[in-house]
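=== Structure Prediction Worksheet ===
Name of assembly: unnamed complex
Input type: mixed (protein and possibly other molecules)
Chain count: two
Listed entries:
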Amino acid sequence: MGKLSEFEPIFYPKSVAVVGVSANEEKAGNRFLRVMTEFGFKGKLYPINSDTNEILGLKAYPSLRHVPEPVDLVNVNAPARSVPQIIEDCVANGARAAEIFTAGFSEASEDGRRLEDEIVRLAKGRLRIIGPNCFGVYCPRGGLTLLPGPKYPKESGSVAVISQSGGWVTDFIWAGSGHGLRFSKVISYGNACDLNETDFLEYLATDPETKVIAAYMEGVKDGKRFFELAKSLLGKKPLIIWKGGLSETGKRAVDSHTGSLAGERVVWEGFFKQTGAVMADGFEELLDTTAIFSHFPHGAGRRVAVVGGGGGVGVAASDICERVGLKIPASSPEVMERLRAILPPVGTSVRNPVDVGAPMVPSPLFQEVLEILLSWDGIDTLLIDRMFFYGIPQLVGAPDTDTEKRVEVLTNVAAGTRKPILAVLGELSSGIDMIDIEVGRRETRQRFREAGIFTLPSIHRAAKALSNLCYYYETALPRNR
Amino acid sequence: MGKLSEFEPIFYPKSVAVVGVSANEEKAGNRFLRVMTEFGFKGKLYPINSDTNEILGLKAYPSLRHVPEPVDLVNVNAPARSVPQIIEDCVANGARAAEIFTAGFSEASEDGRRLEDEIVRLAKGRLRIIGPNCFGVYCPRGGLTLLPGPKYPKESGSVAVISQSGGWVTDFIWAGSGHGLRFSKVISYGNACDLNETDFLEYLATDPETKVIAAYMEGVKDGKRFFELAKSLLGKKPLIIWKGGLSETGKRAVDSHTGSLAGERVVWEGFFKQTGAVMADGFEELLDTTAIFSHFPHGAGRRVAVVGGGGGVGVAASDICERVGLKIPASSPEVMERLRAILPPVGTSVRNPVDVGAPMVPSPLFQEVLEILLSWDGIDTLLIDRMFFYGIPQLVGAPDTDTEKRVEVLTNVAAGTRKPILAVLGELSSGIDMIDIEVGRRETRQRFREAGIFTLPSIHRAAKALSNLCYYYETALPRNR
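=== Predicted Assembly ===
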């Protein structure tokens, strides 16, 4: 268990030493040093290297024992066998914490396990360890990034991530930041020989910056404490977990990867049921679900009105929404009457899902449809698909008469409602020659996001993320059901 | 039932008349005429309009009765109530077929149903009808396109699509062509008052251009014949069906959309089981599955070797592969030994899934790993994830030392094997400012495609598509299992 004060030098270090850094730019230590500089770390950086006086313009020290002040965080890239000595040096320096990127410990062999035990023994009560076999910490407010991360967002945000896989973490930050996520703390904790998932979760539970917690986990060190903590988070901060290794083949892969005990599927299902933590099935679902929680901090309801540009949209939305437990109530007589009064009589449908006939409907009509549906108290949430053809001129060969206006209409309508709105922005064309359409899609997505509208690239992903969101708030606040 | 000769004027018309075409560029008839011209239709185009002598530089005729020759295909955009008269004119002209875009028939009301019955009666034995309430036909070899489709590929291909939704068809052509699909015939058939899904399927079964058939269906007009035909296709041409409206909510949406009888889920499950048609769950899966069938016409086997840049990849691949019925056999002792001899001892795994440690491994090492796995007779198919970081310079802030070489390695290796290779090319960053990375992804995807390597954007989508491919060939050729 970590005391809160012990995390301060990890996330907001005033000084970082890099051990195992050479002048070779290809090596991890050198790259980490460069990446920290580029990212704009404001504290002191101490390269540790006995062969040179200077690396990347920074004064180098032969060992941690020569550094003139106790450092907050030591980044370790040196070979596994040298790590015990480095930990002794850390202790001698008075360092507060070390993030050990080096692999080759308990995940690799019995020798590695002994080495890991030794560093734990040497550090115990003196400094805290993240890793080994990890990517370390990204905390933009602390000016701290991980490899490879010079281009990660420098703005801070409300999403925390803990992960046993460094690879998934780096992808998550990249993909997530494109989707508008910003992060408070991201921690790749690897073998978790000292600080483990539960320690970080405990810190994040009280971290005022963190509102949503996403996790990729292969195993748990301290099941009981993790369970209690996850349970205590319910109703306070959503915890979304992608649990890797729930299959038999996956368990074998977990053993090779982090040496964790993957656990039985039935145990994990019980965990999710009893804690209210949200189960995400894979990378995309973890991303989508984290994003929707971050976007709609007050949750959403399951009764959905669907607006589609074409009847096939409504059919697809109906099938997937029903499967994931969302409701598409039939329009009330009043709603039907009001829609019938404005929609063309043929090629449309006034029942919910509402089919406005085609994506290219006039924007005033689109606006009226949205307003009628949003004012209907039979629904909680609005879902829109196939209404924004950002690449229309290029795809259709016709001028873009009204798409832009429909985007405007939706952003205006969103400003006047408290009901969550989701818009599917599908990947209409993915040819290289049509990259402008992708640019248009990303711009529209950003405009929607700024207007409070949540977007995903397919109706399947949108429905699943929405259902996860509803599930959490129903579990946390059962009276609101 | 349609005779084969009756389809000739539909797919390869020598002349097309457009009825319901005005000088107003916003109207569908005008747009269709323009789109056909832009698409490069080589036959005669006859605009039919009694108010003007010329539309878009083409001589206009007051009615079909004034056209100096019998036309092959009549495109009808006129209001529903005028369609019976137009059909009479078609008959008088000696026209062979009509595609009726107009909606407002049996899907809309009882009056509409009577109107539809009337046009069927008038056309019976005289001309064939596609629609009404449809988008018509796209057949690049015939120079024929549909709305909106001036930018659809002009090259012909081996994929045929039949669909009850015009919207999904247009999206499918756009998205599919970006993914490398090319089409033989695409038919949006709407209400299918005359030619229906089974008629088109019968034609496509014998069409030498068509190798793979994709379908979006909400209902079936002639269940028994469709069943027999689907069954007869097994082992000849894969038939992949996305069946819309399998849920209760979906059935209601189907009723509003095409007025079809959606049918019970259990009946459709029986259909798929007994015919060997492949069931696709939604738009993306229809697209992915069609693409993989088109890409690997000889099928693939379920025993998969996975190569990942990082251990989390292997865990994710294991979980999803097991769920969809793919096998990831543990490496044989010989394979393990050979991999162990070349891979770094820590941070990697020589068991299958094989973890090479990180995406940025040296290309010669990557090549050796691929060659060892491909020469192993314990696996049929190779699946690679998280090895190609096309945006490395931008994301990592380091020069792109070896990604390009790894792409080369894989394309070379693919040339020397008959085992199918799939590579996941994930959407690494989706920010507007990182559009270059998306360009890199699309370029890599195209290079891979040309080298015979199949790509999809996620391990989930790749595994599902591969499993669908395996399922079909196992069902069609059970002795090869």
